[in-house]
Amino acid sequence: MRLLEAIRSSGLPIRFYQASSSEMYGKVVETLQTEKTPFYPRSFYACAKVYSFWQTVNHREAYGLFASNGILFNHESPRRGETFVTRKITRAASRIKCGLQEKVFLGNRDAKRDWGFAGDYVEAMWRMLQQDKPDDYVIATGESHSVREFLDEVFGYLDMDWHRLVEIDSRYFRPSEVDLLQGDASKARRLLNWQPRVGFKELAKMMVDADLKAAKRERAMQDHDARNGVGR
Asked: Which residues are catalytic?
């Protein structure tokens, strides 16, 4: 709100991008989700995102600002925070492979998400800001995969059976679960000439490769310290 008001007050030709989220759809009322799908937020975060979305639309329509909403579905990469489920899985699997930990604890393994590559999605953000007119766009792959499927890809790539290495912890279940998110990016494909380049399997392997490299480095340092009596 303060950013939008600052832009309005300045009178400068600033282009504003609002990072909206697929979490706004929450308890989805239709699949696939488009720019016209009603929002049904299921968390504090999602409610705040809905507020920001409509403030952006309001400032665009009321004051003529170049203000666009990018409704981005889950976008992942090796730089994803370690508490997010995809990165939590790839990091844990890599560390288990290198003997640095024994198990990983997760919540709902049946939740389904539309996972894409962050690099592709940042390109979509940039394309939104190059348009003649501001607008709102869903950015998604159009595919939906469960956490179980992600586990299959990650642990399978490392030649391990996740069923023996993953345990359920009720602390990681949401109070109000979001069961399925799957976006329709037809508008972005048509108007922005955008489409995702990295697929689900490629994304999982990319993240594992990065975390496996880090785990091997961590293991090598531990072995070095052990050989040299460090920490005794």
From this structure: 21, 23, 45
